[in-house]
# Entry
Amino acid sequence: MTFDDDYAMLIGGERVRGTATFDVVNPATEEVIARVPDATREDLDRAVDAARAAFPAWAATPIAERKAKLMALGQAVMAQADPFMRLLTQEQGKPHAEAQGEVMGAGYWLMGASQLDLPVTVNEDSADRYSETRHVPLGVVGAISPWNFPLILAMFKVGPALLAGNTMVLKPSPFTPLTTLKFGEIAAGILPAGVLNIVTGGDDLGPWMTSHPGFDKISFTGSTATGRRVMQSAAPTLKRVTLELGGNDAAIVMPDVDVEKVAEELFWAAFRNNGQICIATKRMYVHEDIYEPLKEALVAYAKTVKVGDGAEQGTQIGPLNNKQQYDRVLDLIQDAKDKGYQFLVGGEKADVPGYFIPVTILDNPPEDSRIVQEEQFGPVLPLLKFDDLEDVVRRANATDYGLGGSVWGNDEDKALEIAQRIASGTVWVNETQHLSPMAAFGGMKQSGVGVEGGVEGLLEYTNAQTIVRKKRTPVAA
# Structure
């Protein structure tokens, strides 16, 4: 198995190169690094048919055997961590260290999911009847994964869906399909044919999937705007949906923090993966008592961070992944300039090849500004001053989003009290972005529908089925 060429889809256990291709670009150089299959409607139909044909046998496979397959998949990914890492940096842009973390996390996620169990609830066990509710697979799942964490976020879907007994057709982002296709080669040697199928394509493929009558569920990770279209497209056939969507996560930094100790952590809460994380800190509310020293500490640290090609030694932040997102972030920066907001660092486009934008921090822009209200999904952070706790909780919650958030404070009980008032699916205290296959993760409001992870996420790939058995009563003599 080679990682630097020979990219093919996986349909019914066979590698399929298709009849047309599209280019994949390295965002650090803007050079074409690969050509991958551009699926047709017929390719998609074949993938759905293969998944449907494989479903009865896979659903009937004992869960212990399904767990063993997921464990083997996770171990196989980890065994190839180095080539996966290098390929991921090429297609996504993130530095090698972060890419390796994602690859190992993908393996860990599969292995972690294999430890979950489908619960059985006994509702009644009386002299008259026995009733229990169990959970059965839905059928064929269509999974659509994003470009910011292409490998691990695909595993968020693959692990629980397959564990529950479903089969799947997986579509990676056209910006980052390479590692997913190579994962397909590994999966072909471990899973029965048709259990996992992988198709690649451009803007048409996603809508074909969400409207396809052969899917019983769509699991999508991406923007809120696209999530609305996914739900609309799935509605005519009443497909189940799990939608993990955008966020505008607020961090609240209390006046009792140790500024020097917390500044670096706060920086990476916003700028890890170049800010291209749905649960990155997008708004940082800092108490006025520490606003000036924390502002200075963040700016000083930002100036030490190396931005560049993720394949180069010492790089800490890579490029934006694609031209579309690059242009959107530049537009937000330009809007802030046009409005006269103060930049503490950054704000200028890097005059080099690749989709590079320097780390950018703004000084207390208005609450109603675009840079505060919109999800920037890039290396731009507004610092915002507060002096009243009730007011900052209100401001943190005054958004259509509700994915994540964080509270930072030396008084952990007080920080926890504040965290419990944040209207987000996950809120961290004195850390951020920690996720586990054992814990539910999902959004409130327009940040999503349903959850991933934990038993709750596993059950989203099932139907609840209640079996009621009337007990025979002795016949009177």
